[in-house]
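Quick note —
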Amino acid sequence: MHSDASGPAPLRPSVGHHCTHVISKRKKIIIGSLGFILLIFIAVLFVFGGRERTVVGDYRLEQWEDFQTYYLHKRGHDDSAEGGSFIGGITLQIGWNKRYIVAERHSFYRGDPDGWMVIDVKTGNMAGPFTESEFRARPDSQGIQIYGAAEAWKKL
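Predicted structure written out below.
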C-alpha cells in the first residue's frame, strides 16, 4: 500500500451536489424575475392611477373591476349605507368645477329614482335626484362640462 503523509486525496463533489447547486441558482433567478415583474406591475398601477382618481376636493371616482362601471366616493365617508357609492348609484355621467360635482346616477335601489345629483364640494351638501329638465334649470349646473363616466375617468 502506498501511503501519503498529506492524507487522503480530496473527494470530488458528487454530480448530485453539483445539480443541487444549479437548481438552487435557477430558483434564485426565477424568484428574482418574478419579484421584478411584480415591482413593474405595482409601478404601472401607480402611474396609471389605480382604481380611484380624485375628481375635486375629497371626492373620488372609482373604476370597478369590469372597467365599465364607475362609483363616486367621498374620502372619510362610509358609503356602505348608500350601497357603496356616495350618490347611491352607479355614475353614468359626471361633471365638475371647483365648487360643484354633478353626476347622473342609476340608483342601486330600484325604489329610488335615477337622475342627477348635485354636490356642493365646499359644504358637502348633496341635492337630488333631479330629472334632466330640473337639472338643466338649476343655476349650479350651468357652465359645467359633462362627460360620460369612462371619458371622465380618462381625463382625471
